Amino acid sequence: MDDQFENELESRLQLLESPGGAGMAHPDLARADVVAAILGVVTTILVMLWWAF
User: What is each CA distance from 47 to 33, 39, 44, in whole angstroms?
Assistant: First the structure.
């Protein structure tokens, strides 16, 4: 592997594994985004079922 990739990988692992880190490296997905995704999937499934019959 090249040195740049190795350095980037090591820095990301340090971010995830640091014992003094304050919780998660990235914040949780917003509840509104999760609800919108679920509604989009359900709507797509219902439209496809309606179209199939």
Answer: 21, 12, 5
Residue 33 tokens, joined: 């985004």
Q: Check: pTM over 0.85? Answer yes or no.
A: no
Q: What pLDDT band is residue 1 in, cutting at 50, 70 and 90? A: low
CB 17 within 8 A of CB 27: no
- Of 38, 10, 15, nearest in space to 26 by CA: 15
SS3 content of the chain, % helix, strand, coil (to 5): 70, 0, 30
pLDDT in tens, 5-46: 999 998 888 877 766 666 666 677 899 999 999 999 999 999
